[in-house]
Amino acid sequence: MEKRNGLRVILFPLPLQGCINPMLQLANILHSRGFSITVIHTRFNAPRSSSHPLFTFLQIPDGLSETQINDDPTSNVMSLLAQINRNAESPFRDCLQNLLLQSQESERISCLIDDCGWLFTQSVAESLNLPRIVLCTFKATFLNAYPILPLLRTQGYLPDSDSKAGDSVLEFPPLQKRDLSRVFGENGEKLDPFVHAIVDTTMRSSGIIFMSCEELEKDSLALANEIFKVPIFAIGPFHSYFSASSSSLFTQDETCIPWLDKQEDKSVIYVSLGSVVNITESEFLEIACGLSNSKQPFLWVVRPGLVLGAQWIEPLSEGLVRSLEEKGKIVKWAPQQEVLAHRAIGGFLTHNGWNSTLESICEGVPMICLPGGWDQMLNSRFVSDVWRVGIHLEGRIERKEIEKAVRILMVESEGERIRERMKVLKEEVGRSVKHGGSSFRSIETLANHILSL
Ligand code: UDP
C-alpha cells in the first residue's frame, strides 16, 4: 500500500448509483496516492461501507421519509435532488465542522470533493475555510453548456418542428434540435435555478475533476477551463483503475457470467437502461418483442421499477417469456463491467449514461443508443454522430426498429465497420490511463494540487 501522506480528503457523493460509483472509484485513486478518505453520505442510497474497509463512512440525515424511500424517489430525480439539497445542508455543515474540529495536526483535512449537483456545499466549505473541488460525473461538453441551457430553452428552439428536428443546435454541437426537449423534460423552467447555482458554485470552487480524458474531449476540457476559470483535471475513465462492482447499490446477479461463458464470441447483445431511467409498459413490450424477433442471444437487465406501474417483468405474457428465454437471459441487476468485458458480448443497447458509455468504450463494445433524457441525449450523439461507434434509435422504441438495429450491429457488415471504429477508440482511450498517458498525468497533477491546498 502507498505510504500515507498525512492528508485527509472528505468526499460527499450524490446518492445516485451513477454518482456513487465514480466518487468511490475516485476515493480509491486518491487513497492509492497516500490520501486518507472520509466519505459523508446520506441515509438514502447509502454506500455499503463494508465493501470499503480502508475508508471512514459518516451518515447524515437526508429528511426523506420511509414512504418516499420505499416509493423509489429516483423516479423523479429533479424533485429528489431539490429535496435532499434542502434537507441535507444543516446536517452536512455540522458533520464537516465536527470533522475539522477533531482533525489532528498529524492528519490535516485538505479539501472537500463533492458532486457538482450539491448546491450548498461551496458556501459551507467557504464558511469553514475549506477548499472545495467539484466532481463532474458527466461529459465536460455538457457542463460547458450549463451557462447557456436556460437561453437555449427560451431562444425559439422549442417546441421543435419536425422538418427542423435534425438540425444542429449551433451553440451546443453535436446536439440536434429534437434532442433539446428531452434534455429539459417537461418542466424545463424549473431547472433554471438549479443550473445557475451549479455554474456559480463551480466557478467559486478550487477545481473540477472530470471522469473523462483528452482523447475523448480535448477541446471541451480546454473550454471548461475558460468558462469556469478553475483548474481542470480529466483523470477518467475511473473504472479503468478501480471497478464499480464494490459500490453497487443493488445485488448483482452473478449467474450472468456462467451463462455468458456458454455463448459464442461477440454474439450477445447486453441491454441495460441504467439505474434511473423509466419506460412505459408498452415500450417494455416493444423492446421484448424486438429482442425476441432479432433471434440474437441477449442479456437484459430489467431493474425492478424500470417499467412504470410494474414490479418487474409481469407485463410480459408467459408465452413471450418462454420465447425470450430460448435465446436470452433476464436479470434484475448485472455486474456490468464484468459483463461488458466478457468475450461473448458483441453490443450494448444502452441509455448512454456517462458511466455506461465510458465502460462500453473501454471494453470496445459498440452501442445501440436509447437515451432517456438530460446528458444522455448528448452522449448518444457523440456515440452515433461523432465517434460513429453506435446506432441511434432516435427515440423509436418500436419492435421493428429494435430488431433492425440489433441485426445491423450484430450480424451485418455495417456492424463490422462500427466495431472496427470502436476498436480504434478503445485503444486511444486505453492509452490515456496507461503510464504517461493524459489521464495518468492528470492524476499526478490533481494529487499535487490537493497537496498544495
Ligand atoms: N450498472 C451495473 N449493473 C447494471 C446496470 C448498471 O453495475 O445492471 C452500473 C454501470 O456499470 C454504471 C452505473 O451502474 O457504472 C450506471 O451509471 P450510468 O451513468 O451509466 O447511468 P445512470 O444509472 O446514472 O443513469
TrEMBL record:
InterPro entries: UDP_glucos_trans (IPR002213). One of its GO terms (molecular function) is cytokinin 7-beta-glucosyltransferase activity. Keywords: Glycosyltransferase, Transferase. One of its GO terms (biological process) is cytokinin metabolic process. The keyword Glycosyltransferase applies. It holds the Pfam family UDPGT. Belongs to the UDP-glycosyltransferase family. This is Glycosyltransferase. It comes from Eutrema salsugineum (Saltwater cress).
